[in-house]
Write a structure and sequence with these properties.
The radius of gyration is 20 Å and the shape is globular. The longest helix has 13 residues, at 4-16. The chain is mainly beta. It is 6% helix and 52% strand. The strands form 7 sheets. Strands 2, 3, 25, 26, 27, 28, 29 and 30 form an 8-stranded mixed beta sheet that branches. Strands 10, 11, 12, 13 and 14 form a 5-stranded antiparallel beta sheet that branches. Strands 4-5-6-7 form a 4-stranded antiparallel beta sheet, with no helix packed on it. The chain has helices spanning 4-16, 202-208; strands spanning 24-27, 34-38, 41-46, 53-57, 60-64, 72-76, 82-87, 89-90, 96-97, 100-106, 109-114, 119-128, 131-136, 140-141, 159-162, 165-169, 178-182, 187-191, 211-216, 219-224, 229-236, 239-247, 250-256, 259-262, 268-276, 280-289, 303-310, 315-330, 336-342, 346-352.
């Protein structure tokens, strides 16, 4: 995720920016080897959602949303997306959260970051003999120390990198854009250059360079929401090493008055969601000009393309969808893609992935 509050800040910024004469131009071209047209299959499962997150655990499809009765609602895939239960709500006490952000799935565990507390809540999910079980593990917390006269960026979104590490977007600008943390959520090392070479003050960096992280067994990907930038890092000998980073479409921006401004009439696309299956990374991509964005219109805010890259950064395929999605998730065998589409109400849909391309 997918932290909704910060994403909304980025959207507001897009609406206020006009063309600038001193723009930096990043022109990325990726040659995708294949293109496929995918048609959805509906199951008439309408849901209450604001586009939070979609995830798969074994035979369950989960929806994380602030607008539902439960923060996490679970559906049985073999039973035609029958709703089988939920967990979590706003408030204190067991199952209560104050400012949750869905961040990852690892095996049968999902992670919810309590943003304001710098904590990670881990939920173990199981579904046996028709019974849903959600057990909450002890919270992990990252130390945060204020420094007099200095703005210290906190870590507050945590993603499982492997069975011994987490990563977090720190968004510093001096080779500390990300944080590697150990299994108890204690920082190990800061790493990584920011997506743009220009300097920004901490608040601007934390609000304008918002993106999405997905990880798989030691490999991490980061995609910016509002600029077509993708980076890959891999854990090697205890250090996160950059494998590659690039712009995959046109980006035009400027840093002015300590803020990052986008040329909305020239910059293409927004990333709506991000996933990986250990072989490829998938970007749910809205590929229109930023000036055309309109959150009230499905065709001007949701995405109908998925860009597929391999772990070497090569463009593999473009998947053209016959309906627009706010979120996506892959099945465990990567043969099925699930999504949330407005038809016109938010509805769970699924697509058969192309055969013979893997």
């Amino acid at each position: 995720m997918k932290h909704l509050n910060l994403v909304s800040i980025g959207i507001i910024g897009l609406l206020l920016v006009t063309s600038c004469s001193d723009m930096v131009n990043q022109v990325g071209t990726v040659d995708f080897k294949q293109s496929y047209d995918l048609r959805h299959k509906g199951n008439n499962t309408e849901i209450m959602t604001d586009g939070g997150a979609l995830f798969v655990i074994d035979t369950l499809l989960g929806v994380f949303s602030y607008n539902s009765e439960s923060l996490c609602t679970f559906y049985s895939i073999p039973d035609g997306m029958k709703e089988i239960g939920g967990y979590g709500s706003f408030g204190n006490g067991a199952g209560g959260f104050l400012q949750p952000s869905f961040t990852y799935v690892y095996g049968s565990t999902i992670g919810l970051s309590e943003v304001n507390k710098h904590e990670l809540v881990r939920l173990d999910i199981s579904y046996e003999n028709g019974n849903l079980s959600v057990s909450e593990r002890k919270c992990l917390k990252t130390p945060y120390k204020m420094k007099k006269g200095e703005l210290v960026l906190p870590d507050y979104e945590y993603y499982r990198l492997d069975d011994k590490h987490y990563v977090s977007p720190h968004r510093g600008l001096n080779n500390d854009f990300y944080t590697l943390l150990d299994d108890s959520l204690q920082p190990v090392v800061r790493f990584g250059e920011p997506p743009i070479p220009e300097k920004l003050p901490p608040f601007a960096a934390s609000s304008r360079l918002v993106g999405r992280i997905v990880a798989h067994e030691g490999t991490m990907f980061y995609a910016l929401n509002n600029l077509p930038y993708l980076a890959c890092y891999r854990l090697e000998s205890g250090q996160m090493q950059e494998q590659w980073s690039f712009y995959y479409n046109e980006a035009h921006y400027a840093v002015r008055n300590n803020d990052l401004l986008y040329d909305r009439d020239k910059t293409f696309g927004r990333v709506k969601d991000l996933d990986t299956d250990g072989q490829y990374v998938y970007l749910l991509y809205w590929d229109q000009l930023l000036s055309e964005y309109d959150g009230k219109k499905t065709e001007k805010s949701l995405a109908n393309k998925i860009l597929v890259f391999d772990y070497e950064g090569n463009g593999v395929a473009v998947l053209n969808l016959d309906c627009r999605l706010s979120n996506m998730a892959l099945s465990k065998d990567s043969r099925t893609l699930y999504g949330i589409a407005n038809l016109p109400e938010p509805t769970i849909v699924e697509f058969d992935m192309p055969k013979g391309w893997r």
